[in-house]
Design goal:
The complex is a heterodimer of chains A (about 150) and B (about 190).
Chain A: E1 2-3, E2 6-7, H1 18-25, E3 44-47, E4 50-53, E5 66-68, H2 82-89, H3 99-112, H4 118-124, H5 136-149
Parallel strand pairs in A: 1-5
Antiparallel strand pairs in A: 1-2, 3-4, 3-5
Chain B: H1 15-19, E1 35-40, E2 46-52, H2 54-58, E3 62-67, E4 100-101, E5 107-113, H3 116-125, E6 127-132, H4 139-144, H5 168-173
The chains are: A alpha+beta (about 150), B alpha+beta (about 190).
Amino acid sequence: MKVNGVDHPAPTDTRRLLSDHLRHDLDLTGTHVGCEHGVCGCCTVLLDGAPIRSCLMLAVQAEGHEVTTIEGLARDGEPLHPVQQAFHECHALQCGFCTPGFVMSVVGLLAQHAKPSAQEIDEGIAGNLCRCTGYASIRRAVDRAVELKK
Amino acid sequence: MTTRWFGAPVQRVEDDRLLRGHGRFTDDIAEGALECCFVRSPHAHARITSIDVAAARELPGVLAVYTAADLPFGDVDLPLLIPHPNLTHGRTQRCLASEIVRYAGEAVAFVVAESRYVAEDAAELVQVEYEPLPVVITPEVAAAAEHLVHDDVPGNVAAEMAQEAGDVEAALAKAPRRKKLHFRYERGAA
């Protein structure tokens, strides 16, 4: 499995969730686990570019695929990815727990729709819960990310 | 205190690490913490007739399994945090249900293990026998008091309170129109 561009050996425990594998075996703790049953969206990562919930997938199922986590969007010392930058500018985060999941969902959304409509934005982030900000600032951040990506 | 920022958006200074996935939340600190899993009631109202945790305790990787009987405070109701004077029959639950469960999901046993995987496996090995009791779901059904949620709470009523300000009767008598509303409030805490 390739994670953020780096090849990793196959996980040995067949029951290991992809989320636990990323967090506890590869020490990529930016992927957060909120509900552990696919409701909160905090654990969203990209699998071959499409957003998936890493708590609903076994690590062994990701073998042969490319996984991108929040740590893979902008290397340390490099500027933030446009979606990360937009979240910062629009105050689309407070405590930051749900943020990696939202950011990955939005990266996936913008890969599919370069300029999503309001409805497409709502559908794109419908699988993610935020308990701090409300969603208005997050919607604004998606629009801002579209501008920043130009 | 300065007012020069009033009305101006201010960029936060803590965002960078949170946006890059470098936040440090409790579960990100790999200090070998143990994991736990609760065994919860599938019934909204039932009497617990037996709990068998022997198989769960024997599972390798399990450090402890607790039921109310294992806790020195297992038979003590949790304190009433806001003892409002109108609350004539306030009732609280226990840390773990010992005799009766009063909502689906009420914790009955508590497993501590080396990993979440083992804790969940062990929780599935806990055998709880229940005798289902009549279920009381809404405030209206509770107020009808066909069945009691707590045997010692008459009519299922914990508190009665009417709040008035000024001369209500006189104000209503001369009101050109009246409207009657029925409100439902969500519960702020349990």
